[in-house]
Amino acid sequence: MTDLTFALIGAAFGGLITYLLAIQKARLELDEATRADRAKAYKDLWKLTGLLPLYPPAPNVVYQDLVSLSESLRKWYFETGGMYLSQPTRDVYFDVQKYIATLSKKEGSLSPYDNKGAYDKQSDYEKMRARLSALRTQLTSDIGSRRPPSFTLPTE
Q1: Cα-atom radius of gyration of the chain, to the nearest Å?
Q2: CA 10 and chain centroid, separation
Q3: How many CB atoms are located within 10 Å of the residue 90 CB?
Q4: Claim: this prediction has a pTM higher than 0.85
Q5: What does the domain layout of the chain look like in residue ranges?
Q6: Is the pLDDT of residue 48 over 90?
Q7: Counting beta carbons within 10 angstroms of the beta carbon of residue 36, is it exposed (0 to 12), middle (13 to 18) or buried (19 or more)?
Q8: Residue 154 in contact with residue 141, Cβ under 8 Å?
Q9: CA nearest 32: which of 154, 143, 131?
């Protein structure tokens, strides 16, 4: 092989590597932009999921509040952030909506307590609360907010 052949092969290889690195950089920038957009959109969704807290349980929630929650979630989905949901988060979101639909025909208090005043882990309140918690967990996974930083700053 001649020096010219080596030079051409080297230039082609260098060009290919440069091209692949540029594509990777563009993907990373898009991922970072999507993550920032998600974080902004997810703040509103996070607030909506606070209807049924574990600590302390909300004693005055009624089944009709779930219907209102479902409507607020739908509005958020179509007006703010549905397009940012990852597939796993979308699945959990729809699980929440489907479970609300099963409870929406009920009336009265959505009490987290049994008739003796103890927290009832089998109550509709707890089952719905667990689904909302799963949604929040998935939101944090999407934006990486509960992962430790990937680097640490030096200390003096």
Answers
A1: 24
A2: 45
A3: 15
A4: no
A5: 37-143
A6: yes
A7: exposed
A8: no
A9: 143
